[in-house]
């Protein structure tokens, strides 16, 4: 992923909200019931609880950068660096530490983050070291600390792929393949039921677009975040201009209000956070003549949601299944 450098921590929130659970690469133009219980049941990994950990048994694992990393067969103290801890938690594994300082208040599963030490964002190496991890899972756009982290513990890079690919890669890493497949099967079963409940009766090629307002900046989403559920699960199609972004592996793009209509689909989902600046900008947008001129708006096919749904880990996507009927019933 190629991205220009930006000051932190302000831009960190924007990128984490936008790059959550995303697949593919981006570039500088895009600034912008498991075997042990239900999907929300997460078990802490207790240190020194296995023979392999005690004996130091290891194996080779090839990560997303084609690096062969020697990892513990049964890691006991995992630190997660990235914006999708839901990928790990879905496998009933709770890391001892993770980069939570920005996303803890932005995800739909804060209940599952209890007991996880925040290592900061960017990750503070001293904090990571103090947790004495035996494995670090790295899934972040900023790879500047990768070498330093690798000196603390074996560090495996997880690619910014689609939901199932990421989940399966981590499952392979941790020996949780059966749980991953069960989570996927459970999700698809629930998704099929929700589709029946919604009775969408989509026309072939019916389009939908996701716009995200963060502060004063407006983004259009490609194939990432909540768009994954709209396109892959519900069966909407991206409008031509959004499809262009997807074809160019652009996960999102900053746009101006003036060109917003050219990206608008027959259904529009508009996301925003609770920040005062965002609320003010959204109110201005929704009251503008440009917004009111869009056919989807005129037809009452717009839906407003919190930006916390702009993640595509399987925990968020599963909880979104419960939210979608309520969300789409509130179309304006």
Automatic annotation (TrEMBL):
InterPro entries: ABC_transptr_periplasmic_BD, Bact_iron-sidero_bind. It is found in: Cell envelope. One of its GO terms (cellular component) is outer membrane-bounded periplasmic space. Residues 1-32 form the signal peptide. Keywords: Coiled coil, Signal, Transport. The keyword Cell inner membrane does not apply. Residues 57-67 have a biased composition (Basic and acidic residues). GO terms for biological process: iron coordination entity transport. Residues 29-67 are annotated as: Disordered. Pfam families: Peripla_BP_2. Residues 170-197 form a coiled coil. SUPFAM superfamilies: Helical backbone' metal receptor (SSF53807). PROSITE patterns: FE_B12_PBP, PROKAR_LIPOPROTEIN. Residues 29-55 have a biased composition (Polar residues). Residues 76-332 form the Fe/B12 periplasmic-binding domain. Belongs to the bacterial solute-binding protein 8 family. This is Iron complex transport system substrate-binding protein. The lineage of its organism: Bacteria, Bacillati, Bacillota, Bacilli, Bacillales.
């Amino acid at each position: 992923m190629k991205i220009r450098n930006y000051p932190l921590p302000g831009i960190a929130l924007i990128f984490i909200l936008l790059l959550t659970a995303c697949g593919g690469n981006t570039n500088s133009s895009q600034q912008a019931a498991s075997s042990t219980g239900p999907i929300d049941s997460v078990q802490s990994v207790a240190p020194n609880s296995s023979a392999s950990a005690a004996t130091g048994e290891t194996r080779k694992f090839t990560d997303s950068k084609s690096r062969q990393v020697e990892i513990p067969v049964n890691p006991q103290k995992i630190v997660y660096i990235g914006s999708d801890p839901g990928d790990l938690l879905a496998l009933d594994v709770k890391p001892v530490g993770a980069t939570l300082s920005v996303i803890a208040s932005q995800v739909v599963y804060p209940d599952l983050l209890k007991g996880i030490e925040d290592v900061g964002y960017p990750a503070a190496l001293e904090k990571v070291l103090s947790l004495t991890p035996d494995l670090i899972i790295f899934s972040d756009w900023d790879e500047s600390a990768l070498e330093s982290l690798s000196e603390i513990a074996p560090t495996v890079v997880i690619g910014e792929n689609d939901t199932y690919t990421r989940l399966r890669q981590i499952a392979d890493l941790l020996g949780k393949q059966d749980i991953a497949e069960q989570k996927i099967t459970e999700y698809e079963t629930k998704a099929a039921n929700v589709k029946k409940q919604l009775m969408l009766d989509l026309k072939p090629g019916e389009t939908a677009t996701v716009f995200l307002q963060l502060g004063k900046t407006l983004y259009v989403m490609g194939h990432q975040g909540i768009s994954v559920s709209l396109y892959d699960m519900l069966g909407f199609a991206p409008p031509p201009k959004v499809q262009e972004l997807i074809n160019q592996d652009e996960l999102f793009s900053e746009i101006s209000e003036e060109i917003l209509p050219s990206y608008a689909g027959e259904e529009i989902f508009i996301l925003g956070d609770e920040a005062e600046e965002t609320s003010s900008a959204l109110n201005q947008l929704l009251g503008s003549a440009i917004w009111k001129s869009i056919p989807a708006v005129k037809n009452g096919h717009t839906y407003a949601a919190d930006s916390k749904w702009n993640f595509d880990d399987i925990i968020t996507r599963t909880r979104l299944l419960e939210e979608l009927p309520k969300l789409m019933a509130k179309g304006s």
